[in-house]
Amino acid sequence: MASSIMDAQLPFSLDKYHVSEEYGFVLPAPLAELPPYYQPWMDIARHVTELIHSHTLRSHIHQMPELDASFLQNHRELRLAHLVLSVTTMGYVWQEGENGTVKVLPRNLAVPLWAVSQRLGLPPILTHADGVLANWRKRVPEGPFDMENLELLVTLPGGDSVRGFFMVTLLVELAAVSGIKAIPDVINGVRRGDTETVTRALEDIAEAISSMTEALRLMHTYVDPAVFYGIMRIYLSGWKDNPSMVEGLVYEGVQAEPMQFSGGSAAQSSLLHCFDELLGVTHEPHSGAFLTRMRDYMPPAHKQLIQDISSGPSLRRFVLGQDSAPLAAAFQRCVSRLLDLRSYHINVVSRFITVPAARARQLRSRGEAGQEDTLSKAPTALEERGTGGSGIMSFLKTIRDRTKEVSLPPSDTGS
Ligand code: HEM
């Protein structure tokens, strides 16, 4: 377990936080196969989409043997097991759509998913750490890390758009790596009072945040909004604050009472949590509580990194106290780039949720259900709500506005 950076005055480093030099928070070279004993899990997970379409996934899962998860030996095996069991769980719960949900996850799925989750410190549901960070391989191993050469290990209904959604998000994670790697230089530089090092590191971070926005643009090329809204979204949704599953879900063989967990969202990515803590962004209580809860959906070492950044020295206070125009400009560039990213993300959400939701309502109210089938049959329960159950746009705008508040006074940036 990583210890607090405040424990020792050793230089701050990323070594103990499971952050890779090359891939950041992304799991390097995820395993694609489990040991042969677990073949029944892999067989179902690889065919989740077809089994959902034929309405036979649930019956296949009922016939699945109850396997003992304790033979899984290392982190990569556990991550693959969590991915396949959680994808299978999403399929099981949502196979019949929002009106045909279940109250109980059968024990042959619930017990091993719970056991693997306990060992990893992740919740027993599909998370960003599964679908994005641990769900990729290169088609040509020595080929480039780009959309053409990347594929998913397991998928859900939605065809190419599912690959697009997870892989573009993966590229956003990778675009941020140089920025994450610059964080120790900022913290150590502030401790030493080394203005130049901090300035350079902040320039790298601003650059990385710009690259994240560039990568996010690919969403429009690789994901069809109607497919995202009408087909995929339900498989990413959870059983907390969800009108289709008000009580939550009983994990049979684990606990008699139902439990509630949020669905997968890039709000569970550690990237913006790290940058917010570094720059000193503090969120309004409602959105702050949601974002803080999302940290429980991250690998524990990544969550620890965020906490340790937050208990480090105040960067903003340092910048204000230094009387260095280049330093102030670099800090302000980070804030501006983060604002640009959040504004662009709001556009993405509008295109992939708000606009299709309005069109779906229109089709239904005019009784034009036969047209634009994918949209008119879209689930209704999540229409106005984020996976966290909040009014999406006001939630995201509040977060963006709080980001703006860490801007430096114009006199400090020379503007
Ligand atoms: C089609 C693409 C996307 C859609 C429709 C989408 C939708 C949403 C929604 C509805 C929320 C509100 C919270 C929730 O319901 O979970 C959210 C939050 C968030 N999303 Fe996305 N998102 C998309 C792609 C991405 C990508 C690629 C990233 C980058 C890693 C990202 C990063 C975030 C972050 C960090 C939050 C928390 C709010 C914030 O810190 O500003 N999203 N997103």
TrEMBL record:
Family matches, as InterPro entries: Indolamine_dOase, Trp/Indoleamine_2_3_dOase-like
Keyword Cell membrane: no
Record: residues binding heme b: 345
Entry keywords, A to Z: Dioxygenase, Heme, Immunity, Iron, Metal-binding, Oxidoreductase, Tryptophan catabolism
Extent of the signal sequence: none
Family assignment from sequence similarity: Belongs to the indoleamine 2,3-dioxygenase family.
Name of the featured protein: Indoleamine 2,3-dioxygenase
Organism from which the protein derives: Megalops atlanticus (Tarpon)
